[in-house]
Amino acid sequence: MSFLGVEPGLVPQYVGYQMQTTVIAFMVLGIVFVSLRLFARYVSGSRMGIDDILILPAIVCYLGQRVTGLLMVRRGGIGYHAIWLKTYHPLALQTFAKLQIVMVILYSASVTFPKLSMLGLYLRIFVGKRERIAAYTTMGIVSASFIALILCALLQCAPLGYLWNKAGHPGGHCFNTGVFWRYGSLPNLITDLAMLVLPLPCIWKLKLSQRDKIGLVFTFITGSIGIITAIVRIAFFWNIDGQTDVTWAAVRLGEITIAEPGVYLIAACLPTYRSLFRFFKERTGLTTKGSTQNTWGSKKDTSGMELPSRHTVKSAADGFEELSDEDLISRRISKNKNSTHVQATDYGYKKDPKHRNSNREIRVQREVRVDSVLR
Predict the structure, then answer these.
(1) What does pTM read for this prediction?
(2) How many folded domains does the chain comprise?
(3) Domain contains 43
(4) pLDDT tens, 163-189?
(5) Tens of pLDDT along 317-332?
(6) Which CATH number covers residue 61?
(7) Structural domain span for residue 71
(8) DSSP letters of 221-269?
């Protein structure tokens, strides 16, 4: 039951626990997924990029929004009918209105920073001028939408205090907040579509097998799954009247408002887990001897995308390979300023020709170092 006291003999309807459960669940999920992302960067040994940096304000705003959601349940009366609150706990309605402003601001930030992080990841792998311009343009639209939502939240009433104290501000007025809530997610939907489509032309131009292309498409699609919750949120606000019985309707509307940033945050973390999967695969002993090992380097393609390129090494049963004379060299590839520097050193074993049937071998290893690569 909420903090709100219940009058003797009166048992009001209450469903606020539903939103509270959603808030706590997504709070835990957000912490887990961001922690796994940071751990993935640690085990991969790669430097933090702009996409990793943007995740930090994302998780801060994300947790702030969850705390605000809990306060709206515990202090703002979410889960009760507004008519009951107006009769028995009118101050709860004022608290609800004030916290709603904070919720809008933190919601906007919690959606914006994960999307900027994904676009920052695109900028790390796009080398084509058109692709980079498209990514920067999308970042600009996402940022402009963020600023617009904050301004709408702060300027929805004149004066702002009229929102929670109409009697104290005669002559005050508010714009149609119902329209604001219904159309406020449309920019998110548009930019989600842009982020979904943006890498596809580059992927299909890559000289890769159909299987590899599908794998890359799937990787980028996981970063755009927020589009699903954006569509659901728009549908919720179109079909649920959030103005008549605000605190009762806020349970369903609040749940999707909490869930949407959570899905965006998770989506922004998923593409970084490849090195984490590789780490656990090695620790659990799933890599078997004599199998084909894939070493990923960086490859600049004419499609305008710089993606990991796969170098396949067929291992011998003992984990080493036989190399030719020309393989026993060090190769250095230095590209221009828009490309990745790759340094690969091939080591293997080479049998002594004089003892080709003997067990005398020189055993060394293969080392590949890649700067700035998608992991």
Answers:
(1) 0.73
(2) 2
(3) yes
(4) 999 888 888 998 887 788 788 778 888
(5) 443 444 444 343 333 3
(6) 1.20.1070
(7) 16-276
(8) HHTTTHHHHHHHHHHHHHHS-TTTSHHHHHHHHHHHHHHHHHHHHHHHH
